[in-house]
Amino acid sequence: MSAVEKIEEQLASLRIAKRSMPSEEPAYLLDIDVSRSARSESSRFVAVSCSSKSIRVYNRETLNFLREYSSHPGTLNGVRFAHACDSVVFSACSDGTVKCWDVRSATQRAVQVFSGYPSNVFISFDINSSDLIICAGTEKVDKDTFLVFWDARGITNCASTTKEPLGVYSESHNDDVTKICFHPIEPNLVASGSTDGLVNVFDINKDNEDDALISTCNSDSSVSFIGWSGKDYEQVYCMTHDEGFCWWDIAQLETEEPITLSHVVDVRDAVCVANDTLRYLVGGFYHEKADKLFLIGGTSTGNIHLMSCGTSGLSLVGTLCGGHSAAVRSFCWNLTDQSLLTGGEDAQLLLWKPGAVERSLAKKASMKIASSVQKRVRVHDSSLKSRKK
């Protein structure tokens, strides 16, 4: 069995291990991140960005709710843990700040605030792999669109201070910057995606924006998700708001080879899903061991489709059924234990693990009646129906 086949088999064995208890204020779960500890490979916390303009923090293993942070009247967008300190979590805010909280503290006050310029409305952000630089992307205001950078050093001493920006990039996008994604290994490389259709890659060690811009890739549509993939993460991919997929090899920039690995105008037309539909894309993750890029999509009734990517096209790996009862909006893949966290419009946070058995007998009343195929397998089994070979 090849490495890819083994990974696909693991994905096919994903089952619901835990689900969060319903919140008093149901909300869409828009973004998920897990804490990373330099001292161990296990993570203690899960943070979720909610449509209720708040960040919720849960225990990673039990999904028990721990605490909630809000920033009214600002809207919190996205959530990221620091890499070296697993109790520090960030979120971009529409009030022109990036806020930082320490989940060990019960206080609602941010331990650090990174302030932008007066007109900034931040809708995307990320922190680099060395925890030294934060970058946030703005909505377009008048004719201005910015990538704003801050020095993030000092975040772990919990001193409540406000930091001013190091500087901005203002020439490379001409519409809302919807996604920021630092390189997983190289702390000086950052990719940005925008509703202008462009995915830009920058080397922020360069002295100015012109020199920093390494590549500009055009998706021909509005970018909704970006990520890095491939050996040494030399590839960049994106998804678009009209369910397109683009994949580029930045390593080919200095060669005669084309950098475009794949361009699928509409994934819904390109992937065959038996007895089901693919309505939308959620995002993607690169599996290092298999050297394979996987995409996640879904249906309005909560089924989750897992797809593998190749230069020859996309293929369905399998479908996670029986978990969510509405569209899935966010996910987080954990390479360490091969687990998957998913959040949706049904306000549920689910933890999927290979071969898991859900302990809770509580089921959502809004869940669909099981199909005849599921009934033949086992009615209560929240399983992934593998594609028949």
What is the mean pLDDT? 87
CATH class: Mainly Beta
Classified in CATH, the superfamily is YVTN repeat-like/Quinoprotein amine dehydrogenase
Question: Order of strands across the widest beta sheet?
Answer: 6-7-8-9-13
Please tell me the CATH architecture by its name: 7 Propeller
What value does the Rg take, in angstroms? Answer: 20 Å
Number of domains: 1
Q: Let me know the largest β-sheet.
A: 5 strands, mixed
In words, what does this structure look like?
It is a single chain. The chain has four helices and 30 strands. The chain has about 400 residues and is mainly β. The protein has a single domain, classed as YVTN repeat-like/Quinoprotein amine dehydrogenase (Methylamine Dehydrogenase, Chain H), CATH 2.130.10. It has a five-stranded mixed beta sheet, with no helix packed on it. Strands 23-24-25-26-30 form a five-stranded antiparallel beta sheet. The protein starts with a helix and ends with a strand.
